[in-house]
Structures are given as C-alpha cells and as structure tokens.
C-alpha cells in the first residue's frame, strides 16, 4: 500500500505573526516533497509541528488516513516521524553505533550486546555504502557524516516519514552527493521524504513535488518535472528576479594593496600568502575543513598566529583580540551564527548595535533613538521579517538570524576597511541572496576590501573578482573570475 501524509488546515500563530495559515497538502510515499519559501515563510514551523516540538493551533496531520496526536517529540517518533534538524540531536562522546541504536540498544542477559550492536550497525553502514567506523565517537566525524548517523537513526526506527530542514547548509558539493544517495535510498524504500532547502539546484536534483509557502500561506503545489527555476522563484518571491549574476553592478577599479598576508601559519593553516586590494572581492573556495575560516580568524585576531606576517595598509599588525581588529577596521561576519555570531537570547537591536555601542553613546548614556534607527536600518536593508526591533533572536527564522549577523557587521556606523564574510548566504532565500551579492559589490565600490568565503561553488565563482582555492590548510591556486569554472576550482580544492 502506498503511504501518505496529509496536512489538513494547519494554522499556527506566534505573538505578532501568523506563521502558518490553513496549510493543506498531501505527501506520498516513494517521493521527495520540497517545502520551499522565503526566510520566515513557515517551513521550520511546519516541521516542528510534525516532530511534536510545537503544537498547531488548528488543523490535523493524518498518516495513512489516521489522525496523529503529535503531543511530544517521543510520540512523533513512535508514530513514525523523524525530523532531522541542522542542530544535531546526537551524543557526541558516544560511538556511532550507540547513537544509531539509542533507546533500543540490543541486550543480552541484562547487558548491552556490543557484538550485535556493532554487527547491526555495520550492516546498515554497508547498506548505505558509508566509510564510517561503528565504534568511532560521533564527535570525531565531520558534520556530513554526523548527519548520516542521524539518517541511520531514522532508518533504524523504521520511520515512515523522514523530513530534513536545510540539511545541506553545512555540507560541500561532494558531501551533498553522499546525502542525496541516502535520500534516494529512503525514497526507493517507499518512505515519505520532506526536504527543505534554499538551493534551487538541489530542489531539481532530488525532489519530485514542490509545495511553495509565502508568509505562512500555501501558494502552489507543483510537480518538479513540470516547472523551472524562474517560475519557482516567482512563486516564492512574488516577482521575477532575472539572472542574478549577470545583473550585478560590480566595482571596476581597484585601489592600493590593503591587506598583505605572508606565510601565515596557525594551528590550522600553513604558509598562506595572498594580497587584497581596496575595492576587490576576493573569494575563498574549498571543501569544508580546508582552512578558509581559520585564515579569516587569524586575520581577525581570533586565532593565534604562529608565524608569518599580516600587513594592513602597509603596516605590520598583530591583533591579539577581535576587539583590536574591529578598532583597526576589520570586520568578520562569522559562519556559525549559533556559536560565534549572535547572543541568541538578546534582542535584534542588542545584536545589531553590539560592535558600535561606543558610537551610540550620548554623554554616558546609550542613545536609544540612535540605536533604534540603526536597527531599523538593518531590518530594512536585509528585509528581516520581524514585528519589532526588540524581538529575541531565537524567535526569528534561521535565515533571518543570519541577516541579523550581516546587519551587525555591515551597519553604517562601522568604519570597515576589510569585510570578511564567512558563508554569508547560508540559509538565506534566493531573493535576499541576490541582494547580498549586490551589497558585496557595493561595499567594494566604496573601497572596502571584501573577503568572501563560500562553499557554494557557483556563488563564489560568480561574485568574486578573484578566487583563492584552499585544501588542507594551504592555498592550492588562485583564479580570475573570467577564467574560473566549477570544474577547475573543484580540481584545485582537491589538490594536495
Ligand atoms: N518560537 C517562536 N516565537 C516567536 N515567533 C516565532 C517562533 N518561531 C518562529 N517564529 C516566527 O514564525 C515565522 C516563521 O518562521 P520559520 O522558522 O518557520 O520560517 P522558515 O520558513 O523556516 O524560514 P528560514 O528559511 O529562514 O529558515 C517567522 O516570522 C518567525 O519569526
Ligand atoms: Mg527554517
């Protein structure tokens, strides 16, 4: 029998926002259904209702005709629903096999049967063709393989429904292929798969049906084979956005050398040398773990420099802390909003104004009006979906949290010479991505030197003026935009 999951009139409100309104559609077994929509459209909220983390105000979810009582995450799992979030729900110190079988470890005479645990896990690893050791602690695996462990967990529970919330955001192109193979296996096994992503290419590669949400409402349901990227973007954004890259209004003249990095060596990078000119957008490509973030952190004074030189405007600098770097005009918009970027339990306003508080003081007091103006500026510039400047950051959708970080590091009060953007479009919807690319070009036009780190090859190749490629903590090549192709950059990214 073909399985199906039916959403019937789902509604959910938060203070000041109707996150979902009368959502009804059907997802079928043996198919991958994409949930698509701008930041704040309601995708994660819908998944959280499925996983029992949130309760719907209205409507029901039926599995094969029976209404589910999704009162808690445990109940949802028992009902056959696994939702895989980006924040992993794994125990890092425990082994792969213990994580996969957590909650139902095989027993023998009252003890865990480790031999069977290992054999059963190995069988699953072989089935999926993964190069993982069942006894390795989860913490020793890359993010990509940690995600595989989560999928094995869902598979072991024999979940009928497996949903993914932006699973590829932390992965590089090669790792994504591994994930897609697993998703295809789930599909072939007749599972109902729901897939959320902002990457159009993936939607066409791995999904069969598409549900488009906008401002909490269902706009349209489509067959992937019968639509195209332009039409999808139009449905999502409500307008045509054209060819993003061709439209970019770039800076055409560079100034003097702004940053000169020579033989930089830290715990993670080895002998890195490059220069950045005023008004230049310098891309950094590479696989996850190539050392791009670590180069950025060393320049920003966040990681110790073991040897080598960094010159800013010709002067030797050695920043002991990020504060020193910020005061000298270096801004870093970090890759991981949860760990380094935001104070999640504070308001948008506190987060945006944090690096420029000194400039917002009137006598000894904080100028509240100036603070509000600056925050409203960021909200407008990045189209952050929020009812007020005082909303707590955890209550924003993922993409909107990312926009708050951008707002913080690019606010008009910053006197930035060098702007380092580490994966700035992670989790950002297509419409806003296009705006961010143009902003990068606008910063360059103002004479700022921009370092643009991205794992999305198409993006880093098309936005940057020049692309530096790294592998294993070293630079393996440097290519001009005009000469760069995805193949040539990828080849350099894997070069030893
Ligand atoms: N716990 C919460 N408290 C208040 N508002 C919330 C909460 N969770 C979500 N919201 C709001 O509900 C709306 C939908 O958010 P949701 O996270 O579902 O969006 P999304 O489609 O997943 O977006 P993104 O692509 O950015 O991840 C947003 O306006 C968000 O601010
Ligand atoms: Mg989301």
Shape: globular
Unreliable stretches: none
What CATH first level of the largest domain would be assigned? Alpha Beta
Q: Any idea how many domains?
A: 2
Radius of gyration: 24 Å
- Percent helix, as a range, is 25-40%
Query: CATH homologous superfamily name of the largest domain?
Result: P-loop containing nucleotide triphosphate hydrolases
Category by helix and strand content:
alpha/beta
CATH topology of the largest domain: Rossmann fold
Determine the mean pLDDT: 90
- What distance separates the N and C termini? 51 Å
Instruction: Count helical runs.
Output: 18
> What percent strand?
25-35%
- CATH architecture classification of the largest domain: 3-Layer(aba) Sandwich
Number of strands: 24
Q: Are any ligands bound, and if so which?
A: adenosine-5'-triphosphate, magnesium ion
Order of strands, widest sheet? 6-9-10-3-11-12
Largest sheet properties: 6 strands, mixed
């Amino acid at each position: 029998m073909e399985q199906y999951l039916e959403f019937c009139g789902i509604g959910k409100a938060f203070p000041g926002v109707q996150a979902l309104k009368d959502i009804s559609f059907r997802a079928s077994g043996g198919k991958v259904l994409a949930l698509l929509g701008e930041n704040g459209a309601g995708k994660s909220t819908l998944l959280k209702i499925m996983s029992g983390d949130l309760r719907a105000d209205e409507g029901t979810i039926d599995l094969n005709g029976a209404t589910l009582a999704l009162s808690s995450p445990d109940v949802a799992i028992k009902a056959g629903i696994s939702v895989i979030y980006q924040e992993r729900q794994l125990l890092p110190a425990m082994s792969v096999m213990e994580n996969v079988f957590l909650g139902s470890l095989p027993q023998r005479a009252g003890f865990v049967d480790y031999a069977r645990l290992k054999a059963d896990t190995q069988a699953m690893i072989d089935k999926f063709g993964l190069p993982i050791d069942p006894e390795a602690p989860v913490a020793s695996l890359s993010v990509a393989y940690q995600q595989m462990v989560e999928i094995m967990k869902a598979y072991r529970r024999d979940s009928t429904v497996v949903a993914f919330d932006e699973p590829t955001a932390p992965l590089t192109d090669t790792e994504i292929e591994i994930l897609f193979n697993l998703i295809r296996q789930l599909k072939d096994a007749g599972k109902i798969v729901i897939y959320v992503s902002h990457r159009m290419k993936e939607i066409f590669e791995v999904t069969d049906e598409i549900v488009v949400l906008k401002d909490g409402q269902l706009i349209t349901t489509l067959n992937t084979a019968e639509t195209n990227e332009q039409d999808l973007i139009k449905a999502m954004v409500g307008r045509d956005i054209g060819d993003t890259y061709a439209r970019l209004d770039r800076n055409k003249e560079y100034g003097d050398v702004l940053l000169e990095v020579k033989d930089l060596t830290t715990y993670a990078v080895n002998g890195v040398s490059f220069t950045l000119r005023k008004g230049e957008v310098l891309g950094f490509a590479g696989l996850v773990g190539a050392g791009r973030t670590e180069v950025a952190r060393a320049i920003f004074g966040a990681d110790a420099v073991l040897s080598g030189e960094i010159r800013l405007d010709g002067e030797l600098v050695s920043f002991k802390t990020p504060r020193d770097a910020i005061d000298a005009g270096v801004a870093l918009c970090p890759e991981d909003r949860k760990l380094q970027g935001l104070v999640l339990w504070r308001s948008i306003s506190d987060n945006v104004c944090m690096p420029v508080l000194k400039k917002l003081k009137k006598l000894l007091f904080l100028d509240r009006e100036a603070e509000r103006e600056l925050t409203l500026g960021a909200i407008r510039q990045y189209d952050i979906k929020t009812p007020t400047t005082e909303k707590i950051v955890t209550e924003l959708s993922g993409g909107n949290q990312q926009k708050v970080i951008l707002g913080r590091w690019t606010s008009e009060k910053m006197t930035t010479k060098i702007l380092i953007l580490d994966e700035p479009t992670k989790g950002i919807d297509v419409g806003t991505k296009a705006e961010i690319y143009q902003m990068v070009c606008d910063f360059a036009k103002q004479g700022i030197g921009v370092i643009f780190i991205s794992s999305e090859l198409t993006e880093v190749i098309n936005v940057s003026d020049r692309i530096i490629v790294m592998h294993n903590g070293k630079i393996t090549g440097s290519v001009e935009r005009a000469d760069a192709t995805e193949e040539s950059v990828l080849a350099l990214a894997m070069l030893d």
